[in-house]
Amino acid sequence: MAASALLVAPITPPEYHRIISPTLRVNQDPKIPIPVGILACQRYRHLPEGGGQPTDTGIIKTADGTVWDVIQAKRHGGHAVHYVRVPSTTAIDAALISFSPGANVIASLDQAGWDRRYDHMSMHTSQHLLSALMETRLNLPTLSWSLTSYPSPCYVEVPRGMTLEEITFIQAEANRLVFEGRNIHIEVEELDQEKDHSKVVTLESGRAVGKGLPDDYTGGVKRVVVIDGVDSNPCCGTHLPSIKNLQLFLVPHTEALSRSSTTSARLYFLSGPRLITYLASTHGLLTSTSSVLSCGAPLVPERVSQLVDERRKADKRAQDVESELANLLAQGLVSEASQSDGLFKRHIHRIDDSGNVLGFLSMIGLLFADQLKTLAVTTDYLLIFSSSPSAQTQSSTSVVVVFGSKDELVKQGGDALKVKQGVKGGGKGARWSGKATGVWKESNNTSVAEILATL
Hints:
The chain is an alpha+beta fold. The chain is 36% helix and 24% strand. It has helices at residues 36-39, 92-98, 111-138, 164-180, 272-293, 300-338, 357-374, 407-421, 442-453; strands at residues 17-19, 58-62, 67-76, 79-85, 105-108, 144-146, 154-158, 184-190, 201-202, 208-209, 221-227, 231-234, 249-250, 254-258, 263-271, 344-351, 381-388, 397-404, 424-428, 431-437.
């Protein structure tokens, strides 16, 4: 007889949700909402946003068979309020009747909703594990954390930066516990109304750590997430029944943060579906890069280092050539200016696709002024330099720079360029610069010559 196998959907273990208060009972009246603290323990309900975990999405099926998309769930006091999308073909009054108090509905997670929930559970449980290990192994409390949008890495914020040895140690400890497959369960008990649950722990630096219960919480129950032998922490979010479902655990990098009074760091982490997506994306990028560089993946860092070094040298050579060219152009202008009677006026237009056109044109003007001073040439001058890219369109930008021996000459030249050429810019003293949008034509050069002729 051939062997057969049946794959069934994962179910929540019966021991996962534990009501530890002997007097706590779940109200069975359909007209009375179930408190959020109990609601979050059930697999097929929609978790409202809170505790650092984003809202669930899913569907609600009403008695008439209509399926409504749940786009958000929010906590109001101790209860979860669902926001559904009303189809354009459905009247608001009809929607209100479908959700009148006491109406029978079926709330569930569709595939997209379950994928979102599983991702959130994976990352939230990972955060509990990571924070517990840093607290117990390194005495590093978690100041805050962020469950970022999929598939970005999430992060915890800690009071200081961590060394590579510390990060490696915590990652190894996390993976060891993951491979052991420690179980997780939720303990629910009645909330002691006489006790202040809004307070948070404060460090010596004055920084608050963690969060207390919100002031408007009226759920009447308290939930504690327990990772066997690792952590016990109040939380209103959803979590996996075992950390073995986290697969691998990765801490890819840290990011230092500087504030006015403290310096903290973000420790990024990935697990579950995000880790798989991250590895697939990283492998794809590495494969694509190795193909472009015509080398195997292990050689990519070396080839990239070579290209960066070659680019640095090429940039240096280009800068040296630009300096030589600017000096030659300045020398030519100085030679003409020294033989000029009266005001020396010139316009030079160049075609240039480099990334520092303004810097190059400014270098010509500065070298020209320095050489005039060195040669003790006292001729007044007004220079207009312009530059446009080789391939021009209506959105192309041309750079215009004006240099002069007198401030009033430079101002007159800049104002004339604004009026006749539509150049937008400004300046102060002996230098004025601006930009013109569109195609720079020969008629533009003619117009600049006419401006110089009037000055």
